[in-house]
């Protein structure tokens, strides 16, 4: 009996250790980053389309300079499925972010995919935008 208790305690301690190691893993160790360049004429629109799955609690946080870009809106498109097929619960889709160039210059759009209550982000997408 004592042997079983010791075994259970040892397994529990190992499991707890693995859990703690996962929680305190190096911040950003699995962070995925993408960098893009985009050239726009004044008044031209740019659409950034990114994979998205709201059912996970993740969402895209958008940072941009309002002096150079106007945010026209976000549109979510669920997964495409064949006619007559059932919806897949929890399946991801894509979000499209539309911006309009306001004046000449250079700016940056940063999109972070995160759960607001659980930083850091899982993914960061950066667009360097040159407006002429």
Question: What does this protein structure show overall?
Answer:
The structure is a single chain. Strands 1-7-6-3 form a 4-stranded mixed sheet, with no helix packed on it. The longest helix has 22 residues, at 2-23. By secondary structure, it is α+β, with helices and mostly antiparallel strands. It folds into 2 domains: 1-30; 31-131, Immunoglobulin-like (Sandwich), CATH 2.60.40.2020. A hairpin with an 8-residue loop joins strand 6 and strand 7. The chain has one helix spanning 2-23; strands at residues 32-40, 45-52, 59-63, 69-77, 93-101, 105-114, 123-131. It is globular, with a radius of gyration of 22 Å. The chain is 17% helix and 45% strand. The chain has 1 helix and 7 strands; from the N terminus they run αβββββββ.
* Overall strand count: 7
Uncertain regions: pLDDT < 50 for 5+ in a row? 4-28
**Number of contiguous helices:** 1
Domain module count: 2
**What Rg, in angstroms, do the CA atoms define?**
22 Å
Give the assembly state of these chains: single chain
Report strand order across the widest sheet: 1-7-6-3
Q: Enter the CATH topology name of the largest domain.
A: Immunoglobulin-like
């Amino acid at each position: 009996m004592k042997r079983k208790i010791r075994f259970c305690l040892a397994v529990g301690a190992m499991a707890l250790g693995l859990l703690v190691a996962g929680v305190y893993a190096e911040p950003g160790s699995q962070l995925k980053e993408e960098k893009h360049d985009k050239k726009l004429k004044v008044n031209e629109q740019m659409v950034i389309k990114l994979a998205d799955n709201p059912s996970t609690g993740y969402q895209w946080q958008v940072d941009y300079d309002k002096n150079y870009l106007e945010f026209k809106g976000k549109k979510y498109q669920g997964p495409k499925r064949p006619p007559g097929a059932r919806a897949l619960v929890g399946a991801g889709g894509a979000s499209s972010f539309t911006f309009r160039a306001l004046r000449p210059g250079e700016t940056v759009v940063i999109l972070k995919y995160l759960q607001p209550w659980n930083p850091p982000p899982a993914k960061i997408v950066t667009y360097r935008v040159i407006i002429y």
